[in-house]
């Protein structure tokens, strides 16, 4: 990494922003008074298409460049972020069929575009250079907006971005004269954006981040323990994402058009490009309204086409894709060795997370106690398209005053995988009413960690026996009495609710192996016992138990679990 890092600006002179740079869209965010805001470019876009287009030697970027996919596809570069730092033979060019094609140059990816104007031949633009040009425009927009030169950025990437891809990204940014303060993973940036809300209660919790984008969907299970984020499991999918919904709508509209005019608009590249752009627009409109207009002038053979589509029809057309999202999210929870009941929050981010059907399906998968943070299911949800940029901007404002070397040392481990306990630890108090289990340290707590609980002693006081144990949870399933079958009149394509045999599922504690026992003698009536559990980095456990306000206590050390 170091050979790419130029000497950056002095910390006191930095102007740092948060950036997300996706295959489909990018965003810029800036923090003022601890509040991160996504800022618009000169076209007024906050989600800025990751597209560059060259017309007569002029470079266009963002929404203007995306519109050139209809008239100037060969000189338009799109869908390239994931190609950074990859070998040509490893990349999937599927999403570049309707724009400049990736070509092999020295084993890596480049594009041939006429970027000079006049009669000049096409130039070869390596993917790193395309990224540099794009990032320069993006940061240029931020500089214009803020009225001061942006020097530095925190940028987010998917969790499976390789070291080579990260290096290529840093180089591309440095070549555009942007210092990369830190690379943060997308799901952690999304969690940071939520945790920074003034009303946020930072408590131990397990979060699923579903980042549903244009060309890919990435899901992660993140444990948040005492301000440390541990990524427990991730899954990546390239079959179910926004473009697949566009594809389903394109087929639907093409068939309708064909019925009416007997021409297939998919037979011609320009018609296909129009069909694609308008299908995406209709899809986006359906996230807000129950109906959307699909309307294209001269779609094919000179015929205009204008129809409306409603949300229910869209949900039927995209059904397979929606089911794919459900499997993806269920799969990642399993992969983390957890149950849906263990999940406290689902943070939905990425443009596709605006779609109400997806959030409603997730609502049906998780128990009521799980918060589904999406516009359709939560009044306090943050715009899913803005989460990662905001998280990056918050991180940028935290670290911009540090020297580059300190940033690397101080902040990397906090957001990467750290050691954690694989079972919960809790205390059993043996009292007149039998054993009672109190969880002290939840499963997946990052170590070293220290937690204290206070447990009421029996009313009359006396001797209290406590046992420190490992705990696991297990899911108790009780079948409800069969209900009378309601008439199936629900038109709303609720294809996900499978409620024939309704089950009640709850999480109950299962006590595992005993770690320590202690007897606290002669506690006064109404007294309390305080138990502190300290797990060190080598997973050894120290337990201290004492009467609150009392003298002395019991202390013991156990070796690693
Ligand atoms: P990727 O890297 O996966 O290609 P990205 O991270 O660059 O994607 P995002 O902006 O997160 O891009 O997601 C883009 C997708 O979200 C597109 O398919 C777009 O059509 C879709 N999208 C954006 N806004 C909405 C909306 N309001 N309703 C439905 N879909 C939307
Ligand atoms: Mg993304």
Provide tags for this entry.
561 residues; six-stranded mixed β-sheet; binds magnesium ion; alpha+beta; ATPase_NBD; binds adenosine-5'-triphosphate; HSP70_peptide-bd_sf; single chain; disordered N terminus; ATP-binding; nucleotide-binding; five-stranded mixed β-sheet; 11 helices; Nucleotidyltransferase, domain 5; Actin, Chain A, domain 4
Please provide a written account of the structure.
The chain is α+β, with helices and mostly antiparallel strands and 561 residues long. It has four domains: 11-186 and 388-415, Nucleotidyltransferase, domain 5; 202-237 and 331-381, Nucleotidyltransferase, domain 5, CATH 3.30.420; 242-319, ATPase, substrate binding domain, subdomain 4 (Actin, Chain A, domain 4), CATH 3.90.640.10; 424-476 and 507-558, Sandwich (Substrate Binding Domain Of DNAk, Chain A, domain 1). It is built from eleven helices and 27 strands. The strands form seven sheets. Strands 1, 2, 3, 4, 11 and 12 form a six-stranded mixed β-sheet that branches. It is globular and about 95 Å long. Residues 22-25, 47, 50, 213-216, 241-243, 280, 283-284, 287, 350-352, 354-355, 385 line the site of adenosine-5'-triphosphate. Adenosine-5'-triphosphate (ATP) is lined by residues 22-25, 47, 50, 213-216, 241-243, 280, 283-284, 287, 350-352, 354-355, 385.
